[in-house]
Amino acid sequence: MSTEPTVSVAAYLAARLRQLGVEHLFGLPGDFNLALLDALLDGTGLTWVGSTNELNAAYAADGYARVRGFGALVTTYGVGELSAINGVAGSFAESVPLVQITGAPATTAARAGSLTHHTLADGDFGHFARAYAEVTAAAEVLTEQHAADQIDRVLAAALRESKPGYLSVPVDVATARVSAARLEIPLRRPESDSQALAAFTAALGEHLRGAQLTLLAGHLARRRDLGQVLRRIADSGLARVATLLGAKGLLDERHPASLGVYIGGFTADDDVRQAVEQAESLVVVGAVFSDLVTGMFTHDLDLTRAVVLDLHQARVGLAEFPGVELADAVAALADLVDRAGRAPLPAPAASPVPSTAEPGPLTQAGLWAALQDWLPPHTALLADAGTAYYGAAGLALPEGTELIGQPIWSSIGYTLPALLGVQLAEPARRPVLLIGDGAAQLTVQEFATLARRHPAPVVLVLNNAGYTVERAIRSPDAVYQDITPWAWPELLRALGGEGVRTATVRTGEQLRTALADSAPDRVTVIEAVLDRDDVPPLLGAIARGLSATRS
């Protein structure tokens, strides 16, 4: 008789999640996941965060994973997991590692094709696992015989690819026993092939010899937590650093070596655009050149001459080095820079000069000027797709502040639940949320959860009477651009409780006063009333680009 220690499948999964730094589970209960939840939460160190719906849980897990490095949500079969799939697809597009865990009907019911509730009543229990296979790095329906192997495979794939994974856990498998011994071997991202890394490093040193470096970092650099090593390179004085929108703030934008954000032909500063496009030696770090982050593909980069560092391979000019991991490649670059010595840093970028409030009604220009003057350092700044995100893109972020949003997936409403995840992942930082009224209507229920779990988020609802971003693209007066107006202060006080402080502002001076009054120990909601057709300059340029492709 074997004396090898065992744990339940759910306890095994919980232990793996804790090893990955996960402390919170987001989701909703359902009859197929109750036994799973009991075991996941029984003395494992995991804390349950009940969300108002599964889509919001997916968004919250995404926000959590962006800060902690990994996230998890739990839904029930069919109705729950399908509600969450849009959020998980967004995590796939934006390269966010997390796991979607579904409590599923018993293995015997699936084998028999039982006409069970939450199914399509056709006897096929595989519909939803197949759907998730399209938006995850790995997907498994657990079996009693192989559950531990399957869990490790999915979590390892999510780590490796910086994408979501999917685990369907039948009710009978959740409580089955598996060996605990393999938990002694932690899950890790893959290491670089040593020979490939050595060859890459040699080629990189030769390629960069004596050249002035310009780095262009994308969102994968953020997912691999490369901010500190990029700062080390920037501190050398031998490199300048620009980012794409998805990595805005990865390097302090007031650092002397920071070029700010590069958006192809839509880059606000032509000197920045030329510095990237005419770089003597360009190093691209973890970039995905999608439409909205490149100014509708107006970027002009000769990548055949550049050093391009991706998740699992590197390229120096036309020479490819598969098996070189992104973090190792950037570390090799930093070592080469260190050996080259240091150069005098240019003068630090000047802090923006405080502006005065514009007279008359609040405009987009007045809104962003007020935020620029007020925004504190070390802020978790979330901005939803549309006027919020593309206005925030023009801010010069203070030290320790990064912009969190979805420039690739662009699912409106994402940031409000994501704020819940961000604030639980890093409670010491004060979060600030910028969200349009149309976007907020999709996910506003989660305000009730986040307002009770963090003492002082600041939420700005940009009320411009509908879908302003869509109006800027086409048919501004169409009926489908309108939304039902809501009484935002009253609604958010009702959802958040008595501790919520609210204000409605219609002028720049009122906005500045409301921001100044946002006490650090209270939830603050500011409804900023704007003209429906007023858009930030970057969004206007993008809208014209989108309109040209849809005419």
Automatic annotation (TrEMBL):
Residues 395-527 form the Thiamine pyrophosphate enzyme TPP-binding domain. Its cofactor is thiamine diphosphate; Mg(2+); a metal cation. Mg(2+) binds at D437, N464, G466. The keyword Lyase applies. Residues 214-326 form the Thiamine pyrophosphate enzyme central domain. Binds 1 Mg(2+) per subunit. Belongs to the TPP enzyme family. Decarboxylates branched-chain and aromatic alpha-keto acids to aldehydes. PANTHER family: PYRUVATE DECARBOXYLASE (PTHR43452), PYRUVATE DECARBOXYLASE ISOZYME 1-RELATED (PTHR43452:SF30). This is Alpha-keto-acid decarboxylase.
